[in-house]
What does this fold into?
Amino acid sequence: MSARRAELATNVYVLDMRTNSSWTTYTAEYLTSMRAAGRRPSTVRLHEHYLRCLARHAASPQLVTLGVLERALARPDWKPETRKSARSVFVGFCRWMHGMGYLEVDPSRMLRPVRVPEGVPRPIPEHVLERALGLADDRERLILLLGAHGGLRAGEIAVVNTRDLADDLLYVTGKGGKTRVVPLVDDELTHAIRRAGGWLFPGRTDGHLSPGHVSVLMARLLPDHWTAHTLRHRAGTVGYEATRDILAVGAFLGHSKPETTMRYVQLPPDALRAVARAAAA
It folds into this structure.
């Protein structure tokens, strides 16, 4: 038997041996491969969460089909952004299963992309932010300021640590493991981070608060439809109004494309009035 035929025979044997294995076995192996590739703990937890959702629709990974993937993504309670994130996890897992020889065919190849409506900038109004800051305790106040003044995501706020602060510069590791530098001109924030001597917000998730808990704390303080993400919109909007530099604002927020930043920036009224005056001249 040739080496190639022996390899194929071995893969088929492994596939047969694992046909009745539980989701737990495959998920654990997949997550281990992610950790070995240096993926962030928060990313690994996100993949684990969405794979649990997928497991509700098939008794084992070998029974996952295109239809199973589509039914899992069709949850009526998921927003387009959530559905897009879940699709990315499903595709990554199916490709890994196929590449490992656990699936003969990758069922995600024909999975349609998820269409996400173009976002509209929604910066939180200053009076709403001030009211939330007035209601917040010391910890909640720091969380709000990191979002509104630092432009940090909930997941980035959760892992702020003293070791990431150099003078007034906070090194923030965001999506995709990319690190950016965020200047903190708010003395209240720099002093609090320096005094923490470790995690700014200690908790049970690897020693710090989870991103979900950070979002919950902000949701309790913010009324109506204002969310943690609208604090980032506020940071982007006021930053652009002061500088008119979309590239600098994008670097501050951790964006790789100006088009993404524009979805966070509400154009200043004077800029729109200048256009109106020019059009009417």
The radius of gyration is 23 Å. The chain has two domains: 3-110, 126-274.
